Structure formats: C-alpha cells, structure tokens
Amino acid sequence: MFDEIDVYHRGVSLQKKKDYDRAIESFSKAIELNPKYTEAYFSRGNVYEEKGLHEKAIESYNAVLEYNPNEPAAYYNRAVAYAKMGNKPQALADYDEAIRRDPDYSKAFFNRAKLRLRMGEEDAAIEDFSEAIRSNPKDPEPYVCRGLALANQGKYDEAIEDYDMAIRVDAEYAEAFGNRGNAFERKGDNDRAVENYNEVIRLTPDDSKAYYNRGLVYFNMGKYNQSLADYDEAIRLSPKESRLRQSRGIVHAKKRHFDKAILDYSEAIHLEPKNIDARICHGLALVSLKRIEEAIEQYDKAIDINPECTRAYHSRGVANGLLGKNQQAIEDYSKVLQIQPDDANVYCHRGVVYTKTGNIKAAMDDYTKAIELRPDYARAYFNRGLVYRIAGELDRAIADLSEAIRLNPTHTQAYQNRGLAYEKKGDKVKAKADIKKVKQLQRSR
Prior knowledge:
single chain, elongated
C-alpha cells in the first residue's frame, strides 16, 4: 500500500520525464490521501504551469497558501502565472508578498523588475534589478537587464558598466556582448560595437541577429562589402526573415545596384506583404531606375496597409512631381501635413510644386512656414530667395540667398543666384565676386 509520500515522489519522477498528465494524476492522488499536503499542491501547480494551464496552476498555489500563508515561493509562482495571464496588478501584488516574506528573493526582484518594465516603470525596475544583483551578484542576467533599461534611458556608459559586470560573471554570456555592442553603436563607437558583435558570433555562430547587427554597423561605417557579407550570412541562417532582405536591399541601393536591391525588396514583401518599409524602399529603387509608375503602385499599397503612413505619402508626392502630376503631388504633401503639421521638409517640397504651378503666394507661405519651423533650413531660404529673384524683389532675394550661404557656405546655386540678383541691381562688384566664388567651388569638387 502506497502512502501519500510514495505517490508524490512518483509524480515527481513523472514530471522529470515530462509525462505531465500522469504526474498531475499522482499529485492529485497524494492530495486525496492528505488534503493538507502542500508539496503536492505546489508541484501540481508547477506542472499545470508547464502545460500552460495558468488558472489551474493558480488554484493549486492558492491551496498552498491556504495551509502555509508565509510561503514566498507560492506567491512567486502564482505571480508568474498571473503575469502570463496578463493580470499585471495581481502579479505585482504577489511579487510584493514574496519579497516581503523573503527580502533576499533574487528571482522575485528580477521578475518584478521585468514586469515593471512592461508597465513603463523604468526607474522602479532599475531599483529591482539592483536588488536582484544585491541578492545574487553571481547571476549575470540582472546586470544585462538593468543595462538594457539604462540604455533605454540614454545612459549608455552606465549600461556598458553593467554589461561589463555580466561578462566578468560569465565570460561566455553572448547576450551581454550583444547588448554592449548595441550600446557602443548608439554612442557612435562603431569599432567597439563591431568588436562586441564579433564576440557574439564567436560564441553563437548561428545567431543571425548578430550578423544583422554587425552588418548594420558596417553599413553606417560605409563598409558596404562587409555589410553585404554579413547580411548574406544572416539570410542564410534566417531565410524567412523579411527585414534581412530589406536591409541587404538598402546596401545594394547604396551601391547603386538597384536591380539587386529590387530583388531583395520584392522577396522581403513576399515574405511579409505588410512590410511597409520594404514597399517604400522598393519604390525609391524603382524611381532611381525611372520606373516611376511602378514606384507609385508600391506607395499606393503601403498607404492601403497604413493610411497614416507619412513616408508613403511623401514618397508618392515626390514621384507624382517627377511625372508632372503637380496637383496629385500637392495633395500628397498636404496629407502628410495633416498628420504631422510640423514637418518643415514637406512644406519646402510642397512650396517647390506650388512654384512650378505658378502659385507664388502659396509657395512663399510654405517656404516661410518651413523657415519658422527650422530657422537653420538653408534649402528653404534658397528656394524663397530664388522666387523673390524671379519676382524682381531683389533685396529680399539677396537677404534670403545670403542666409542660405551663411548656413551652407558651399551652396553653389545660392552664390550663382545672388550674383544674378546683384547684377540686376547694377552692383557689378558683388556680382563678380559671387560668380568667382561659384567657379572656385566648382573647381574644388
């Protein structure tokens, strides 16, 4: 005759073998034999949790706490189940109870920190990660997670210190190297970023994300061949990932290999039809090959997917302008400004189209608005100055073109048009000086 302890241990053995249904039967039988057998309730709750039956797990943990209300592990496990169910307030309350009963409960601090991050409570999460480190300084994971939270706050040096500590604890911890690489990348230290991604690849040579990250850094460094090689390897490892094809397409486009770029963008869209960025990149590559109508089709599809996608409207506006469809271009730019009314670049672009249509007042209004939004916007000053020159308002033209030159001292067209304005005013000395400057700039290129 088996007693409840024998039945319980049989359940433990079955649990280790992942024979969960029979394990649950054994733990339930042990509970029938001894209704206050908290270890059996606890283990049954764990098996339910492994099966994803969170509510049943919680019922078992409730029973543990009914007979042993000071058991911190039961609060902790119940908190995990509540968190997986999306019940964040109850999960947080249970982590609180687990920590109140065991102030050195590292896992409880750690999981409460992750929950607080999901709730947007970054500072509180960082405090909890610090407590997890205090409780168990030999666990590298809280260092990495605290580093990530600090990096999200822009505290890259502090984040790097945490990643350093994680690596001291575990010199083979690939995630710490990867996150440290991200922090160096965000600081603009590309060489150090590459060094860290090299370590990730050494430790986990089948990690496509590491090749992707290193490829991105190489791209930012202008090392396009190395970037392509990394994206090739990332795609070999993860051939179904749309963003990898898109990223490789961007490198091909940068190298002006637009046909290759289009092949990659097409495959990215095939893998993920709702990949708006890939569709916009596809359109830009098509524009570069003068296949503008095809580009507009891609922008149309992007807008169908997301009617608020300003990049798609903007790109379509440029394409319509290239086709001479000025009214459609104006409508596209106007749609962007409905969504984000503080975009100086779009005001400037729409001003150009208004200028082409002869609507000088609307063009001037747009250039002026662009300058109000961005007082250092040389292109807007140049465009407004050019319109003033054409309209015969020479002093205003000279003032705007001079400002464009101040902001961009190598702006050849601004010197050229200011020279024409001076010539029309009869100031031949200044006109000659500007034309001379144009020739100097052209020779230096």
